[in-house]
Amino acid sequence: MTEHRSPDAKFRTSLLEENDGPATNPSDNRTMGEIIAARFSRRGFLKGSLAVSAIAATVSPLALVSADQARAAEGSAFAFDELEAGIDDKHHVAPGYDADVLLRWGDPLFADSPEFDPTKQSAQAQSRQFGYNNDYVGYIAIDGSAEHGLLVVNHEYTTPHLMFPGIVKIVEKDGKKSADVAPLSKEQVDVEMAAHGGTIVEIRKDGGKWQVVRDGKLNRRITSNTEMALSGPVAGHDRVKTNADPSGTKVFGTFNNCAGGVTPWGTYVMAEENIHGYFSGELPEGHKEAANYKRLGIPEGAYEWAAHHDRFDLSKEPNEANRFGWIVEVDVNDPTSTPRKRTAMGRFKHEGAESIVAKDGRVVFYLGDDERFDYAYKFVTKAAFNPNDRAANKDLLDDGTLHVAKFAEDGSVEWLPIVFGQGPLTPENGFASQADVLIETRRAADLLGATKMDRPEDIQPNGVNGKVYVMLTNNSKRKADQIDAANPRAENTFGHIIEIAEGGGDFAATRGKWEVLLKCGDPAVADVGATFSTATTANGWFGMPDNCAVDSAGRLWVATDGQGPKATGRTDGLWAVDTEGSARATSKLFFRVPIGAEMCGPLFAPDDQTAFVAVQHPGDGGEDWEAFGRPSYYEDLSTRWPDFKPDMPVRPAVVAITKQGGGKIAV
């Protein structure tokens, strides 16, 4: 009889995605909530266009009477008829738009790729097919075209209970259903490993609809076994050497690639996030990495890879985990090139790496560490970007300064350099080099006094208005005595968005100003303390901001993660959020995902005539099992999106949204 493991009525990998591990920050640094609370209690009621961001948490903005409610709606930068919020097994888009499935899990990517057969999966087939749980989506134009380019997509993680038949056994006790999950075979683990990583695929718009070019010469799959190079200050360090790689410079694979980015010189960057879930076993007693790994929640053991591959067993390869948690750069112009883990950009649970060119030509990358009570970062290259010589930019990410954010209650933000020998980052505190500082980026940031945030996820610079938008998804573990100016709510279930104006309009500045753009949640519930404008409808509010995008007009679009029957009574989706003028803090629903899914991406084509969105983990029950009435797994799914065929499981997919008849989105 197969021995089943009982995950306490929750599937292990789903739990990893939802909860992101324990809050592991032991420092007594001030939290953003404490800072916000102190700032706004001192300033009192704010006047002017930013007032909606500073309303006390006990006041509902819907209870505030607007002198001209319609004025905000008329001043909106977005022109579309709002979609109705709700929950069902399909995706929905605003009237007048088409939302076409472009790429699904298992779709062939090469001329010789096998067709997808969920009952005959293999690692070899999966390595030639579109991976699982698409997250970040980027576009790199071919010959400057907005209708012909490379789509780059991260594959964050796998959910085996939705992927593989026959591994779930449902048991019922005292009227409650739970799931026992059989251990995965080596073949199934190898499929998982091939389904992680990223996809680079040529796409073309033909007759107003996007198509995959299966014989594209630049098409590529990157997996958990793709050979990669460690570069930058950590390359060759003793703490990244293993039995398989005594040089400390060669790593196999990347995984848990959440958000990412495209550099100004046209490379693809992948951010390694929840790496703790892939490692099992115990370090040898007294091992020097024990405190380092504890700060990252390693090992968590949500995945069973260590049962079949020794490198994920800390008792056998204690340094392997130090080789993950980095930013990976891929040269998309050469499908045979070796991706490089750029260690100068720090090691933590990376969420995104969006970039912009500063006034002096240096390139600034904004980086979130997606954990409760962790930090917001930015990396500034030492050398300037050369727009006329792509090759000259190939190693820009190996030399620069990583900074961490410290928010103050006077509305200022300081970006603190994370540099060996400066301040507390010295041998007296256990750092012997910059390599040590970067391997333990979180501890370095702790010592510098960075502000503890409510899960900083996507951080997006806006080249049109010069601002930076920080998505803070939520933090239900924040207590009343831990609120601060930039994290203003205890038990922050619904999250908020911070807007930063860098000093002098220079993205490379080390000081700036900040405001709370939005406190999220239902504004009709006073205790929630949401601060959407009074022009926001019952469909327009949202919780759990996660990914975001800024289109070429400088308009902000926000994708959510964590809504559902239990949390908000609506699925995740894509909202258009005004940031300027009388409509500031007004939000409108544009697209929503099927039940159980998370909204990832989003991405706008250079001409703003297409919005690409990634529908991740559709049909996953997660913490909403009671609302679903039953677990959702391969044989008994809550949705069979997007195929809706009885012989096909639910499949994560990328969707291309276009306006019927053509034209720019929301114009």
From TrEMBL:
Residue ranges of the region described as Disordered: 1-30
Top-level taxon: Bacteria
Biased composition (Basic and acidic residues): 1-11
InterPro entries: PhoX (IPR008557), TAT_signal (IPR006311)
PANTHER family linked: DUF839 DOMAIN-CONTAINING PROTEIN, SLR8030 PROTEIN
Protein name, UniProt field: PhoX family protein
